[in-house]
Amino acid sequence: VAMRLAALLAALRPVLPLVLGLSLGCSLSLLRASWSQSGGEDQCLGGVGRPGPLAGGALQEAADGRLGPGHEDFRPRIVPYYRDPNKPYKKVLRTRYIQTELGFHERLFVAVLTSKATLNTLAVAVNKTVAHHFSRLLYFTGLRSAKVPHGMVLVSHGDERPIWLMYETMNYIHQHFGSDYDWFYIMQDDTYAQAEQVKALVTHLSINQDVYLGRAEEFIGGDEQARYCHGGFGYLISRSLLLKLHPHLDSCRNEILSVRPDEWLGRCIIDFLGVTCVSQLQGQNYHTYELAKNTEPEKEEEEEFQAAVAVHPVSDMTLMYRLHKHFSRIQLDRAYQEIQDLQMQIRNLTSLTPAGEVGLTWPVGINAPFLPKSRFEVISWDYFTEQHLFSCPDGSPKCELSGASKADVSEIIESALEQLNSRYQPLLRFSKRQLLNGYRRFDPTRGMEYTLDLLLEAVTQKGHSHVLAKRVSLVRPLSKVEIIPMPYVTEATRVQLVLPLTVQDLDFVANFLDMFAMNTLDTHDNALLTLLFIYHPYDAQRVSQVDVFAGVKAMVGELEKRYADVKIPWISVKTEVPSQVKLMDIVSKKHPVDTLFFLASVWTEVNMEFLNRCRMNTISNWQVFFPVHFQEFNPALVYRGEQTASSTTDFLRDGHFDRHSFAEACFYNSDYMTARTKLAADILDRDEVLESMEVFDVFLHYSGLHLFRAVEPGLVQKYALRSCNPRLNEELYHRCVLSNLEGLASRSHLAMALFEQEQANST
């Protein structure tokens, strides 16, 4: 019996928590229901079995489906759409961004007041220290036609009187940014403000109040209760206060006399709005510190200085940079201390988790390494030494370690030595002899991982040394993800396709034109086509007798007859070496500067999906797009006489993305002309240099634009053996040959073809 009971308990043990939870839930529900019924009788009924008038009325209305007179605001109503037939119909215009339509505001706007004497000194120092921390920062001055330092946005009011500058600044902020931001921080250029603390301050304040926050100062000979915010230490104004203040600015300018602009603004706010400056609000303190002459920031240890949000006065640029370095070090130390505290808390709580201490990851607080579910998901390690890398971008087995990779390896080795010395000093002091082995891999769930085998020399406190090998592991974790602001683009832009054609391309032109007509002309997509006929000098001499492109011109004529509103122009060029840059120079001169070009190849199958991505990924004066097309393998090697796989079930299967090809590109004509002008100034009259360049090289070396290079599943090309012109530059010719070779088939298909050939030869 005991054994049967033990077996029964063992069988029921997994469901015991569920049974207990259901029992407890049902019990609490019954208990709560009894409490609700007893409470309802006391409040809503006049007595047992005797409903009161309120309860009776409410019950009657609920039964009839009607609400009482106090509930009209909660009753759903259907508002019928009505349009006045006498008024013309207007299309409803939607906003560009959803946050605009929903009424969202940006968090913080910063205004810096500067002058003629400090524009190129202190204002520049402010811009270099804190400007990159704020999303929007403008400088205001009274100068006329002032020369703006690089990287600064300056607003000139044309009057250097302090009160007038403050008046015009407040008007400008209200007019241009009053409806876009919740908080406005106004400071002078001789103020050092801790940007991160200012941003943290506004996140803890309610935007529903009229806030005038700063260092409160008394008026000279004024009311003892009234305070204004000292301009030297900066002050914070809420959007609601700015909106209420704006109608009274003209009256303040005419009625209030003051020498100091901050005192004038404070008097205006107090007299017309009754709001005084405060240094503490909603549990948040605005700490400030007044610098004395000849202050050494590195030696200041006062708690008031360490906690200051704003420091004033800053006399010169050097002092501004020293303050920034000091406070940045303080913030960095705080961040490291917070990391250590969090790691300690994680260690303490790990023992309470189901996995226990075994589930503690290294480093503490960083995501665990990626666990592959199959051998195809295994992330491989790249081997390196201090001189060479054995996993090269171009596919070669060994290449020299240089550039960013060399700097990365050097920094990792230095960091490893620093960590070892900090752990074992003063007992041991390590120095590097040699890097024996190095491994690294990028884990998308946590960051870059490193494993180093170091040959070290360890020196004791007594001076004894010993050489030993030690393996260390390091992780460079992924930092905070940032959303990069991008200019607004639409899918309504017209795309101008440019198709260069040679004699070797004639067999593929018909398919290109058919796909262009089906995917763009039939769908009325906003796209045009220009053909570029490239004649060899021998063919150009015989063009009057035999035109090698006559068939293509006939096909173009048929398309223009079929689509009456379509014109497909062509341009004839005579050259032995069809340089992509020289051809683009000819096309660029014949189109407006705002033209969006799509440089295509004859094997490209144009479709609406890709054209939309071309429009969205190409941004004028910001970004150009070089897609990597998908190249299908040779069907003779892949299928070997079998039926070709359907394109629907095996989409993007039997092929590869051709990273050696840069034939397709999307860019604006204005961006190309700007980069081409810089190239012309660099090469002078050496036009032979253009034969070794592609459009990609022009943008890469002679433009400051973003080059967006990404795989494009919308560009699928059928297999075709490209003709590589031996007159091209050696690198371009080599890339063309590699593209042909890698486009034959995958390794497994090639191995199978070789195996079948050997089997056939052996028999």
Automatic annotation (TrEMBL):
GO cellular component terms given for this protein: Golgi cisterna membrane
EC number: 2.4.1.-
Pfam family, one: CHGN
Gene3D superfamilies referenced in this protein's UniProt entry, alphabetically: 3.90.550.50
Highest taxon in the source lineage: Eukaryota
Membrane topology category: Single-pass type II membrane protein
Subcellular location: Golgi apparatus, Golgi stack membrane
Enzyme class: transferase
GO molecular function: glucuronosyl-N-acetylgalactosaminyl-proteoglycan 4-beta-N-acetylgalactosaminyltransferase activity; N-acetylgalactosaminyl-proteoglycan 3-beta-glucuronosyltransferase activity
Keyword vocabulary terms for this entry: Glycoprotein, Golgi apparatus, Membrane, Signal, Signal-anchor, Transferase, Transmembrane, Transmembrane helix
Keyword Magnesium: no
Keyword Transcription regulation: no
InterPro entries: Chond_GalNAc, CS_glycosyltransferase
Residues spanning the signal sequence: 1-17
UniProt record similarity statement: Belongs to the chondroitin N-acetylgalactosaminyltransferase family.
Annotated protein name in UniProt: Hexosyltransferase
Native organism: Probosciger aterrimus
Lineage summary: Eukaryota, Metazoa, Chordata, Craniata, Vertebrata
